């Protein structure tokens, strides 16, 4: 049994090829190892001996049975020494790698922080965009509402220029503006009245009240202006005063004011005619002598006196004339 095992080992050794590259490389490495050890041993012997007589034969003496038996231990020791040397050589690289790892960790933390901030900024931007869209829609709706309100106020409210025209002086150059504004006020008030009748709202009542105040103030100013005009007018035919005609025409909407204005116009016209008749009796005109100058001629004086009733009749007819000329008919109002 033992011989069989020995035979197998011998056969294995004999069958082993010693010319393979791997085996040659291994033998070369082992020979180098023995050479290193022999060199180291001879160096140690040269250091301990004074003459160095055994330095040359130390390598051959080192290749002993004990040395070959401890080959594995020597290889492991050399492997350990190489590993330690390799580790020592890579300590600086390890430190740099550790520093690089710390930098990478810091960068990772920074990237995580930046990613969180970007996420928060993205969420804030989404909220901002949503808010902006909401505000844009609200602005569009408010713009439409503003346009509707502007159209509503333009239709049911006077402009500042029209309000100013209603409070301006009724001079010949300002009369047209006043009457245009008054006509516009009448139209707007009628539209506002229809609005209140169709859909009663607080805004409609407020506008109607404001327009009514403007209208009453305008009629009162117009009435006072007609009264002052009748007191200061000295022309023969008030029908020539276009502003007075328009004023009396507008006052037809206020019967009380209109009646007082009629009375004022009649009194003014009667006063003017009486003054002219008295002037004809006493002073005459540029081409006609006064009637009193004919007192020495009874026939002619009686003839002139007889013409006085006719003049009075003509005066009465002309007194009715201004009323028709200053006041428009109902069908044209």
TrEMBL record:
<feature type="region of interest" description="Disordered">
    <location>
        <begin position="36"/>
        <end position="63"/>
    </location>
</feature>
<dbReference type="InterPro" id="IPR048369">
    <property type="entry name" value="COG6_C"/>
</dbReference>
<dbReference type="InterPro" id="IPR048368">
    <property type="entry name" value="COG6_N"/>
</dbReference>
<protein>
    <recommendedName>
        <fullName>Conserved oligomeric Golgi complex subunit 6</fullName>
    </recommendedName>
</protein>
<dbReference type="GO" id="GO:0006891">
    <property type="term" value="P:intra-Golgi vesicle-mediated transport"/>
</dbReference>
<dbReference type="GO" id="GO:0017119">
    <property type="term" value="C:Golgi transport complex"/>
</dbReference>
<keyword id="KW-0813">Transport</keyword>
<comment type="similarity">
    <text>Belongs to the COG6 family.</text>
</comment>
<feature type="domain" description="Conserved oligomeric complex COG6 N-terminal">
    <location>
        <begin position="62"/>
        <end position="167"/>
    </location>
</feature>
<dbReference type="Pfam" id="PF06419">
    <property type="entry name" value="COG6_N"/>
</dbReference>
<dbReference type="Pfam" id="PF20653">
    <property type="entry name" value="COG6_C"/>
</dbReference>
<feature type="domain" description="Conserved Oligomeric Golgi complex subunit 6 C-terminal">
    <location>
        <begin position="201"/>
        <end position="301"/>
    </location>
</feature>
<dbReference type="InterPro" id="IPR010490">
    <property type="entry name" value="COG6"/>
</dbReference>
<keyword id="KW-0472">Membrane</keyword>
<dbReference type="GO" id="GO:0015031">
    <property type="term" value="P:protein transport"/>
</dbReference>
<keyword id="KW-0653">Protein transport</keyword>
<dbReference type="GO" id="GO:0000139">
    <property type="term" value="C:Golgi membrane"/>
</dbReference>
<keyword id="KW-0333">Golgi apparatus</keyword>
<comment type="function">
    <text>Required for normal Golgi function.</text>
</comment>
<comment type="subunit">
    <text>Component of the conserved oligomeric Golgi complex.</text>
</comment>
<feature type="compositionally biased region" description="Low complexity">
    <location>
        <begin position="38"/>
        <end position="50"/>
    </location>
</feature>
């Amino acid at each position: 049994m033992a011989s069989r095992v020995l035979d197998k080992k011998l056969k294995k050794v004999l069958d082993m090829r010693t010319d393979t590259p791997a085996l040659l490389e291994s033998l070369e490495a082992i020979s180098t190892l023995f050479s290193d050890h022999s060199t180291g041993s001879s160096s140690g012997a040269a250091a301990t001996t004074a003459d160095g007589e055994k330095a040359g034969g130390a390598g051959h003496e080192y290749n002993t049975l004990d040395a070959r038996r401890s080959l594995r231990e020597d290889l492991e020791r050399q492997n350990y020494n190489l590993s330690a040397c390799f580790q020592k050589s890579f300590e600086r690289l390890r430190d740099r790698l550790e520093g690089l790892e710390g930098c990478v960790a810091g960068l990772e933390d920074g990237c995580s922080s930046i990613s969180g901030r970007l996420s928060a900024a993205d969420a804030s931007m989404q909220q901002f965009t949503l808010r902006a869209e909401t505000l844009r829609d609200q602005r569009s709706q408010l713009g439409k509402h503003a346009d509707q309100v502007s159209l509503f106020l333009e239709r049911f409210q006077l402009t500042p220029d029209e309000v100013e025209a209603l409070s301006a002086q009724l001079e010949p150059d300002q009369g047209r503006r006043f009457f245009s504004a008054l006509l516009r006020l009448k139209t707007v008030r009628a539209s506002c009245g229809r609005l209140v009748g169709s859909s009663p709202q607080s805004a409609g009542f407020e506008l109607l009240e404001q327009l009514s105040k403007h209208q009453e103030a305008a009629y009162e100013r117009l009435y006072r202006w007609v009264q002052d005009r009748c007191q200061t007018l000295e022309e023969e035919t008030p029908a020539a005063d276009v502003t007075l005609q328009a004023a009396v025409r507008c006052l037809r909407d206020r019967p009380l004011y209109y009646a007082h204005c009629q009375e004022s116009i009649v009194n003014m016209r009667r006063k003017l005619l009486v003054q002219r008749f008295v002037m004809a009796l006493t002073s005459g005109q540029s081409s006609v002598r006064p009637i009193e100058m004919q007192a020495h001629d009874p026939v002619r004086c009686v003839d002139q006196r007889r013409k006085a009733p006719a003049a009075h009749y003509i005066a009465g007819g002309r007194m009715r004339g201004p009323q028709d000329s200053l006041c428009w008919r109902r069908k044209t109002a």
